[in-house]
Amino acid sequence: MLKNVHVLAPVVVALLVLSGCESAPPKKAEPPVEIPVQPPPPEPPPPPTSRAERIEAEPTATNDNAALTAVERRFAEGLAQYNDGNYPDAIRIFREPVFSRAWPELQIKSLKYLAFSYCVNNNANQCRATFLQLLKIDPAFELSNAESGHPVWGQRSSRQKPT
């Protein structure tokens, strides 16, 4: 039996060694790959609720939108002049009689841009008078926060409000 132990011992040792070779060495842990997360795109602004707001939101005088009335197209032209810094041309357009015959909302918007144009053109008296005319149509009219904080017309428009 001792002879068998001498024969079996090397076989057992070889089996133990070989069984250790069957398992792969442990892999090194790789750091987790971070997948960049992109924030969702911002919500688009709500569509304008009125025709005058739609024209103001998309002031393109070259827009061939057949749905616009003549006065709306003229307002878009005046607004384009205003946005381009052509204040004398904006004043000329917004003073046209067609705006006094428009519906109140468009009258107010045209008077607002007319007043702004007078203000940036250093015509304080006309600026004030135009804001007064606007307030006769809509006594509750308020400039937006950005507009009321403007150094040129913010103070002139707020002084016109009845207290």
UniProtKB/TrEMBL annotation:
Signal sequence range: 1-24
Keyword annotations: Lipoprotein, Signal
Entry annotated with the keyword Magnesium: no
Transmembrane segments: none
Compositionally biased spans, kind Pro residues: 33-49
Annotated region (Disordered), positions in chain: 23-66
InterPro entries attached to this UniProt entry: TPR-like_helical_dom_sf, TssQ-like
Name of the protein in its database record: TssQ family T6SS-associated lipoprotein
Organism (species): Diaphorobacter aerolatus
Lineage, uppermost ranks: Bacteria, Pseudomonadati, Pseudomonadota, Betaproteobacteria, Burkholderiales
